[in-house]
Fold this protein.
Amino acid sequence: MSNSEYVPPKVWTWNKPNGGKFASINRPISGPTHDKELPVGHHPLQLYSQATPNGQKVTIMLEELLALGHSGAEYDAWLTRIGDGQQFGSGFVAINPNSKIPALVDRSGPAPIRVFESGAILLYLAEKFGALLPTEPGPRAECLSWLFWQMGSTPYLGGGFGHFYAYAPEKFEYAIDRFAMEVKRQLDVLDRRLAQVPYIAGDSYTIADIAIFPWYGGLAKGWVYGAAEFLSVQEYKNVQRWADAIFARPAVKRGRMVNRISGEPSSQLRERHDASDFATNTQDKLAAAS
Ligand SMILES: N[C@@H](CCC(=O)N[C@@H](CS)C(=O)NCC(=O)O)C(=O)O
C-alpha cells in the first residue's frame, strides 16, 4: 500500500481490512456483534472498562471519592477487553450505544442509571457526591471549560497523533507532522495555564485534572505512545511539575491499576470488587498463589 498512489473512489466501501493495529475491531457500523449479558456485583456502582487513559479517568475519580470518605462510591470494576471486541457485546451496547469504554451503571436508586462518555461520567459522579467540582459559578465554569477542552482536544492526540505515530501500518510524514504540531500546541496551552495556577481549574484539584492527567500527564511522563522524546515533553516544565504532583496522589496510583492488562504484574488489578483487592489480587499476587 503506497499512500501517494491512492485515488479515493466515488463512493467509499468497506471491502478490506485497513491493516492498522485495531483493524480487527474497527467497523463502519454500530450495534452489538454478539449476545453477552454484563456481570453485576454488589456495589452501588458498576463500571465496565479497561485501563486506557479514558478508562483511568473514572477509576481515579472513584478512588478519589472513596479516599474523601464517600462510601457510596464503592464500585465493582469489570474488565472489558476492547482488543477482543467485548465492547460489542449486547449488554455493553445497552449501556453504551457507542461501544467504547468506560461505561458506568449506577444501581443505587430505584432504577439503574447508565452513563457513558468519560467526561459525562466524571461530571455525574462529581454532582452525585458534591466533590471535585467547584460550586461557585466562576471556578465551576473554569473547571468545566477544561473538562470539555480535554474531551474535544484529545481525539487529535489519540485518534490523530497516536494513531499515525504508533499504530498505522505505515509512517505517513504528513499525518505525523500535522498531529505532532497540534499535540505540541495543546501541551503548550496546558503549560502556560499551569505556569499561572497549581491545578488546571485554579487553586484546587478537580475533575479537570482527573480528565487531563491520564492523557497529557501520561504523555509528559512517557507512558503514552512512547513519544516523550519525539515530542520533547521535558520542555513543558509546568506540565511536568503538575503531572508529578498528580501522580503522587495515592488514589491516582490505585486508579491507574484498575482494569489494567499490561505492564508490571504488580501494577495490574484486572478486576476490582473490594478495596482490599489492591493488596491481594494484583497479577503478581494471583500468580504466586496459583
Ligand atoms: N470520548 C470517549 C472515548 C472513549 C474511547 O475512545 N474508548 C476507547 C478506549 S480509550 C475504546 O473503547 N475503544 C474501543 C473501540 O473503539 O472499539 C470517552 O471519553 O469516553
